[in-house]
UniProtKB/TrEMBL annotation, chain A:
It comes from Paractinoplanes aksuensis. Its cofactor is [3Fe-4S] cluster; [2Fe-2S] cluster. Residues 18-103 form the 2Fe-2S ferredoxin-type domain. Residues 150-180 form the 4Fe-4S ferredoxin-type domain. Keywords: Iron, Iron-sulfur, Metal-binding. This is Succinate dehydrogenase/fumarate reductase iron-sulfur subunit. PANTHER family: SUCCINATE DEHYDROGENASE, SUCCINATE DEHYDROGENASE IRON-SULFUR PROTEIN.
From TrEMBL, chain B:
Residues 45-451 form the FAD-dependent oxidoreductase 2 FAD-binding domain. The keyword Metal-binding does not apply. This is Fumarate reductase/succinate dehydrogenase flavoprotein subunit. Gene3D superfamilies: FAD/NAD(P)-binding domain, Fumarate reductase/succinate dehydrogenase flavoprotein-like, C-terminal domain, Succinate dehydrogenase/fumarate reductase flavoprotein, catalytic domain.
């Protein structure tokens, strides 16, 4: 199939970017979206142009590196699918596809489609963990965890930290990301001792990093490649209220 | 041996304690020198890589009080490729009361490695396996559980007990997030200085000791020298030398190879694991291959049509009696759960016979119809839901309706930098953990053992053995003006300049793809003397062409993904040649290394213990025409006596 892509080109953080159109010919419908960009980049290099920079790594939907807004939707048109797992069979011959980076105040563009998501790491560093220094662990079966809690914690823990939720949010909020980690750890008995401080500290870090507030738009969960549900934000809010009440 | 390598002195000291194997690790720990907690913060340790091994090591060392500097090429330490491990992690907990024990895990691993691993290391790995599970549970890793709230287990290839702990098909992700979160806690506390989007491009050795690295900031292109009291490489495996593999696109051998060039021996480079259950290639655009977890072989049945003429028919139209469940037929006691090397070669054999299915006849069926009938679709979905989804997304086919098509693909590399029992390389102060070292899996790794080894090394082994080394410190401060530091830095700058100046007419990827074809054809599932000799010639001429014709756009002072790739591919060329030489010199079949000339009458691998029961540790060939030098570490089997590995 032959298509066109309109891609955001920006040489560095301080230079203004713009959309540039490229034609891509003879693409197999079985190629992935990133493989289509690989093919385009090969021809750009041989033509003496600058290839398009984009983040990617595992290309199997789990590392969370790939991050493109495709036709206005974070990760593109397929539900619960990362960019790397999107295949060209979902497009038609002759399509013109817009490709942009994540856009959010807390994720500045580095080059082309590559953005800086280190603010997510800062949120985790503020409290997204259970303090359990190596060697101090009790026997694994000492504390049984009800299967239903373990399964729910797992569902929340499947977040890949890609940032699509932030890119989709009109406020540029990281609430779904933070809520997923708060739920994962808060659902486990091991996570109880730090439950209150965790939610307070993580939300503080989220504000400090320049993410917007949550107004329950629900765009985040629509684009989440792992289907993290909006209900976890309600859970976070409940945890937060309880933690603040205890604190004061 | 003449044309391709020189024979060097054997390796006699592996630093492993003597005496009963059950207490060797205990004794090593007791005899290890300790560093006073107050002195630890004066000691700096560099850790390259943030996967299971590097992440767990960095977190644990920082918790112990050392000053840690961590580096990864990804934009966040959470994205290291350990994240993609699907199936599970082994531990000798014996929660199933099915006769498992540390000794049995040790035995299975030595046997599974086809008697080419070091017994002392493997026993230690089995010993710490139980602590790993405790540690991960304490961190909140959401392992699968039974209704009573206790941990669930499943079985994996090469074993007859259920000892694999798992978190649906995302065990690696959950374990890595555990290590990552422990790391982030230390970053928040200021004990780890994290440098994401930084790539190690050279090792700095001062007066015979590893004292630092040269790194490139991948965003600004700035080259800096980073000094420390010890360097830990946790930079993963080198499967991407094949271009197509299940590794992440960025996985590379550069950190290890730079250390090798500076004197660290590289062991058993030819031992590569070809994983039997991957999604077949779909066309020339293919950029990587995707694994379908081995755990699928618990419930999926592998088959091909009995007759080649049936291969074009839809699977549903092939009657039961016309199907060949070849693993169950050839290996009745292990059936679909034979180890990876055996399953891969069996798939290659039936495809070579013309009985493969799918495009190009390069595929076999992995069929869940029986499991769905027996357990119901819901139960199958609960176990493997995400894997089925992933398969459907990539192929556009629904595996609940039609059998999956799978084919072997490069997955893991057992070889790596040579390390002693303390995980120290032949360069003092340079330690190597996880897939980057060669130590525990011999010639073939069993499923769910990579996660165990990565975390075992990082959480439990390295922090003890590194402490023993650091107890000799603190070492003299090294200035950035020191001749060795400047030299290393100039080497990096010179190489980058050279790559950018070629300005040829072929892309980096085109070279990488061609190199990968050569390796898959001649150094893949079956190797022969003739093929390997030919491959070495092809690699050399392509390598030469690379340095004349490669085109790297852009400059060194910016984010330049092609420059990054070019440096990595340049190192893959040198590694590829060494892999072929290693494969050529090992005139036996063992584990993932199958030599066509060395097989039994019924086509099974034939080892030659009298000649090849050793680790092949290679010294870098210095000078243009020089050859690598082979150092042999003889393997002693005091406990598990080498036998013909039979899974029939």
């Amino acid at each position: 199939m032959d298509i066109k892509v309109r891609v955001w080109r920006q040489t560095d953080p301080d230079t203004a970017g713009k959309m540039v159109t490229y034609g891509v010919k003879d693409i197999s419908p079985d190629a992935s979206f990133l493989e289509m960009l690989d093919v385009l980049n090969e021809s750009l290099i041989l033509d003496g142009d600058d290839p398009i920079a984009f983040d990617h790594d595992c290309r199997e939907g789990i590392c969370g590196a790939c991050s493109m807004v495709i036709d206005g939707v974070a990760h593109g048109p397929e539900k619960a699918t990362t960019t790397c797992q999107l295949h060209m069979r979902h497009f038609k011959d002759g399509d013109v596809i817009d490709v942009e980076p994540w856009r959010a105040a807390a994720f500045p563009v580095i080059k082309d489609l590559v953005v800086d998501r280190s603010a997510f790491d800062d949120i985790i560093a503020a409290g997204g963990y259970i303090t359990a220094p190596t060697g101090a662990a009790p026997e694994a079966h000492a504390t049984p965890v009800p299967k239903v809690d373990a399964d729910l914690a797992f569902e929340a823990a499947t977040c890949i930290g890609c940032g699509a939720c932030v890119a989709a949010c009109p406020n540029g909020s990281a609430m779904l990301f933070t809520a997923a980690k708060v739920a994962h750890l808060g659902l486990m008995p091991q996570g109880q001792p730090e439950r209150d401080t965790r939610v307070i500290d993580m939300l503080q870090a989220q504000d400090d990093a320049g993410f917007g507030g949550c107004t329950n738009m629900g765009e985040c969960t629509q684009v989440c490649p792992k289907g993290i549900p909006l209900t976890l934000i309600g859970r976070l809010n409940a945890d937060y209220r309880q933690a603040v009440r205890k604190k004061f | 041996m003449g044309d391709f390598w020189n024979d060097g002195d054997p390796i006699v000291d592996t630093a492993a304690p003597e005496g009963p194997i059950e207490t060797r690790w205990e004794r090593r720990k007791f005899n290890a020198k300790l560093v006073n907690p107050a002195n630890r913060r004066k000691l700096t340790v560099i850790v390259v890589g943030t996967g299971l091994a590097g992440g767990s090591a960095a977190a644990t060392l920082a918790e112990a009080g050392y000053h840690v500097k961590s580096y990864c090429y990804q934009d966040s330490p959470r994205r290291a490729h350990s994240i993609a491990a699907q199936g599970g992690i082994n531990a000798a907990k014996n929660y199933r009361n099915d006769g498992d024990s540390i000794y049995r895990l040790f035995y299975d691993t030595v046997k599974g490695g086809d008697f080419r691993a070091r017994e002392s290391n493997v026993y230690r790995l089995a010993t710490v396996s139980v602590n790993i599970i405790d540690q991960c549970v304490a961190q909140g890793v959401p392992f699968a559980r039974e209704y009573g709230g206790l941990l669930d287990n499943r079985s994996f290839g090469g074993t007859q007990v259920s000892r694999t702990f798992y978190a649906r098909g995302q065990t690696g992700q959950q374990l890595l997030l555990g290590a990552y979160q422990a790391m982030e806690r230390q970053i928040g506390l200021g004990n780890i200085e994290m440098n994401a989007r930084h790539e190690m491009l050279e090792l700095i050795i001062v007066e015979g000791k590893a004292r630092g690295i040269v790194v490139r900031d991948m965003v600004t292109g700035e080259i800096t020298t980073e000094m420390a009291d010890a360097v830990v490489l946790a930079s993963g495996g080198y499967g991407n030398v094949f271009f197509l593999s299940t590794n992440a696109k960025g996985c590379n051998v550069t950190a290890s190879w730079r250390a090798h060039r500076k004197g660290a021996l590289f062991a058993n480079p030819c031992y590569t694991q070809i994983h039997p259950t991957c999604i077949p290639e779909s066309g020339t655009h293919q950029s990587k291959l995707t694994l379908m977890s081995e755990s699928l072989r618990n419930d999926g049945r592998v088959w091909v049509p009995k007759r080649a003429e049936d291969c074009q028919k839809p699977a549903a139209e092939i009657a039961e009696e016309d199907r060949d469940y070849y693993l169950e037929r050839i290996y009745p006691s292990f059936g679909n759960l034979v180890p990876r090397d055996i399953a891969s070669r069996a798939a290659k054999n039936v495809c070579d016979e013309g009985r493969g299915v799918g495009p190009g006849g390069l595929g076999v069926y992995l069929d869940f119809a029986d499991a769905i009938k027996r357990l119901g679709q819901k139960a199958v979905e609960a176990k493997y839901g995400n894997l089925f989804e992933m398969y459907q997304r990539i192929t556009g086919e629904d595996p609940y309706q039609v059998p999956m098509r799978i084919y072997p693909a490069v997955h893991y590399t057992m070889g790596g930098l040579w390390v002693d029992y303390d995980l120290q390389s032949t360069v003092p102060g340079l330690f190597v953990v996880g897939e980057a070292n060669f130590s525990d899996h011999g010639a073939n790794r069993l499923g769910a053992s990579a996660l165990m080894q990565g975390l075992g090394d990082g959480y439990f082994v390295l922090p003890t053995t590194l402490g023993n080394y650091l107890a000799n410190g603190p070492f003299e401060k090294i200035s950035e003006d020191h001749a060795s530091v400047k030299e290393a830095r100039e080497q990096v700058e010179g190489r980058i300049k050279r790559l950018l100046e070629i300005d040829g007419d072929r892309t980096v990827d085109s070279f990488h793809r061609e190199l990968g074809h050569i390796m898959w054809e001649y150094c893949g599932m079956e190797r022969t003397e003739e093929g390997l000799t030919k491959a070495i010639g092809l690699i050399r001429s392509l390598h030469e062409e690379f340095w004349q014709r490669v085109k790297v756009p852009g400059t060194g002072e910016q984010l330049n993904q092609n420059l990054e790739k070019a440096g990595r591919v340049a190192d893959f060329f040198e590694l590829a040649e060494l892999m072929c030489i290693d494969a050529l010199h090992r005139r036996e079949s063992c584990g993932g290394h199958f030599r066509g000339e060395s097989q039994t009458p019924d086509g099974e691998a034939l080892r030659h213990d009298d000649e090849f029961s050793y680790v092949a540790a290679w010294e870098y060939a210095t000078g243009e025409s020089a050859k690598p030098t082979l150092h042999k570490e003889q393997l002693e089997f005091e406990y598990v006596h080498p036998s013909t590995r039979s899974y029939k």
